[in-house]
Amino acid sequence: MDDFNDDDFTFARPAPKPATTTTTTTTTTTPDESAASKKITKQLMPWVEKYRPERLSDVISHASILSTIDKLITTGGMPHLLLHGPPGTGKTSTALAISRQLNGGKESGMVLELNASDERGIDTVRDKIKAFAGSRAALPGVMKLVILDEADSMTKVAQFALRRVMEMYAKTTRFIIIANYVNKIISALQSRCTCFRFGPLDHDSVYKHLEMVCNEEGLEFTAEGLEHVMLLSKGDMRMCLNIMQACKAAYNIVDKPSVYLCTGAPEPEQINKIIQLLLNQNYETVLNGLIDVQIKHGLSLIDIITSLHEQLLRMNLPDGILSFVLIKLSEIEVALTAGCGDRLQLLALIGIFQIAKTMLQQQAE
Ligand SMILES: Nc1ncnc2c1ncn2[C@@H]1O[C@H](COP(=O)(O)OP(=O)(O)OP(=O)(O)O)[C@@H](O)[C@H]1O
Ligand SMILES: [Mg+2]
Q: What is the pTM for the complete model shown?
């Protein structure tokens, strides 16, 4: 049977109890003990989980998106949602907060949370999602919720099958589809959802949040340290919290040196030196210099490329030359990601700047 009705579904009867008698030893926990054990569990939790927002109002940044979603929930007219955007910006947290606000969260039995990168095929849609959407609601009159996380890794066939399920059970079930890359979600699904883009988190909200975490954790920090955590994380709160937890474990302080030591990323001053070397020296000197820097600071070529482009944007290079260098750097990044050898790409990097140097000289004449 492919299509089945809400009313066709009957709950399985509980299995009869076995006739044998068994003796069980029960350990009783006092409220004090359980509170203490909860406290210990919380202390050992990774900070990204410990500080995961519980309610929509705890999610930082994205004020207008959150207030719209809040209104949709309170007016009872929540549509299917598609939340998309870069990592660590609060998509999953928002979906979980919606599920808590809408029907008491996962514990209520009214929420099916699937990570589509594990369960990405048509069978999941046919079996799990359809069975859940078609089942009778445990709390009558309350919407069931299917959260499909990382849906951009679902196969196209599964996405097409989902189209129909979303329509068939629209009266009783809402879907929240989450993706990093919206263009990997078929347009038929996009058009069935209200889409919200979760962009990188804004500077001031992140700074305040990180300050709060430091105070909660008794972690010393400098303003410069937090600025560098944010610089490396580019609006990704998960990355911010992971860097800070590493700083806490290793140095018990978040300052500029601890941040760069923990992440292994090159410091801006090192990158400036590399740029000066690239733009002012001949091929051989640059090659030897770069190999020295790489060995001394343990930098990979991809780290250098990533930091180089940000620093280049802050320099006053003529537009034409800047564009040329950035396009070429992106080609090296693609080659490195595709698995090309470091050595040849390092030589290509030096070549790009040798050409840029000549272009600069020609413009000056
Ligand atoms: N807007 C936010 N407000 C508060 N905390 C946030 C926010 N975004 C991310 N975080 C923190 O980062 C962690 C990861 O966030 P979340 O899982 O919601 O990110 P995501 O957008 O789903 O990322 P991904 O695309 O990688 O799955 C959360 O547990 C929380 O600690
Ligand atoms: Mg997520």
A: 0.80
